[in-house]
Amino acid sequence: MRSLPIPFVAPVLMGTSAWLLRLRWLAVFGQLGAVFTAGGFLGDQLPWWPLLSLIALTAVTNSMYGYWLDRINQGDRLRQGVPSDGESRDATAGQGQAFDANLSAGGAAVRQSHSPPRVDRQASQDRVATSLMIIDLITLTAMLGFSGGIDNPFSLFFFVNLAVGGVILRPAWAWVVAGLAILGYLTLMFWSLPMVGLVESPRRFEMVPQRVASLIAFATCAIVVTHFVTRTAAELTRRERQLSEIRAENERVLRLEGLTTLAAGAAHELATPLSTIDVIARELGRHLREFEVPESVREDVRLIDQELDLCRQILRRMRGAVGDSMADRWDQTTVGELLDCALEGVRDPDHVDVEDAPQRVEGLPLWIPQEAVAQAIRNLIHNGLDAGGPGGRVRVMTSVTGNSVEFRIRDQGAGMSEEQIGRAGEPFYTTKEPGRGMGLGLFLTRNVVTRLGGKLEFRSDPGKGTEAIVTLPYGNQPRH
């Protein structure tokens, strides 16, 4: 069954925009009910056409608003590959295949026409919501002007507009709406049409103490309502953002704990076969001394022994890097010592160019889990070597900016797209060829850096390479 079209049902994904849409429809039906109820008592004395015209203005603008939100909602659904509400749920397989084909063929065009950047879209929604709130305020003022002015009991709805504006709009625009409400109240004090039972004669410009006191009271209430509503809305937004950050941090910690278990288990399981291979390799080398064999065979045995040592070092570093990132043990070191530690164990060290930094930078003291941070930088160097391919070089630079030290690792690869930069650091996401990486190195690197209060950024020039920037604060004290 097809769902009711917008504007009568707001899209779920629009947040406060959907809320404003519903409230305006509620206002339309409420105003119609109030007008027809009052018309039952006043009959022809009620200014029907002005009031109904103003209500129609609200309904028309809200219909346009709902249609605009519906277009945005459909664009989001198409961009995510989700059928719109208009798609029948019991469509045939042929219709579903046609939809998929159309989506694949025109996906790029649809994303460009229906899905503007998220920041620009939010700014557009804010501007439209502000305009609608101003229109509603002007409409309310005009309706009160045709029906008795401030003596009309419905003049209290000024405060409803102020409360809604304080929640939906940015604080600056909420105060603009409050100022317009005060201006509208002031206008109604000196201009409004009479209404039987409320005001028997038109308002005249006359500044009497009662009017002055009424204006001061209204302005004071408007300021207080706007102030507390905007402050409360801002606090709720801040709390919601904090909760989102806490949830994201908890998810990240859970993933890291899983990887820690994986690393420890891998190290434990691999330790036994590596030890067996090591014993066999040593026995084989000792037996070969008793026979005449080509030198290449002896060289292969030595190479096996060297690679076994390298495997043991990798497992030890993996356990140390992941463990130190979760533990409280910090080391006292310097920028130069940290960089030297990171360069130890780097494959193809002759392809790594380290730019000499001033002594004040290399001697800068740091309190960090050294092996974990060194492994993080080493991961970035290895990624740069992989990106550059055979013969590619990696350049490592250090500098101090404010209260932070920066490590810049620049490669000579093909660069990264915006999508790849956005996903860099996700566990098990990698751009490398199958079998060359699991996508965990950047995840662990970002985890180590962020837990130390730093950040990891990427800057890429397509066809020229990528630069990874690790920023770490150097004012941290050791943890106990």
Instruction: Count the domains.
Output: 2
* Helical content (DSSP H or I, runs of 4+): 55-70%
The average pLDDT value, as a whole number, equals 76
Q: Give the assembly state of these chains.
A: single chain
Shape: elongated
Structural class: alpha+beta
What's the helix-strand series?
HHHHHHHHEHEHEHEEHHEE
User: Strand sequence of the main sheet, in spatial order?
Assistant: 2-4-5-7-6
Could you name the ranges where pLDDT drops below 50 across 5 or more consecutive residues? 1-14, 84-116, 324-328
Q: How many helices does DSSP assign?
A: 13
Using DSSP, what is the number of strands? 7
Through-space gap between termini: 63 Å
Roughly how many Å is the radius of gyration?
34 Å
- β-sheet strand percentage: 5-15%
Q: Quick one: biggest sheet?
A: 5 strands, mixed
Task: Write structural notes for this entry.
The protein has 480 residues and is an alpha+beta fold. The chain folds into two domains: 195 residues, no CATH class; 144 residues, Heat Shock Protein 90. The protein is built from 13 helices and seven strands. The strands form two sheets. A five-stranded mixed beta sheet has the order 2-4-5-7-6. The longest helix has 80 residues. It starts with 15 loop residues before the first helix and ends in a 7-residue tail after the last strand.
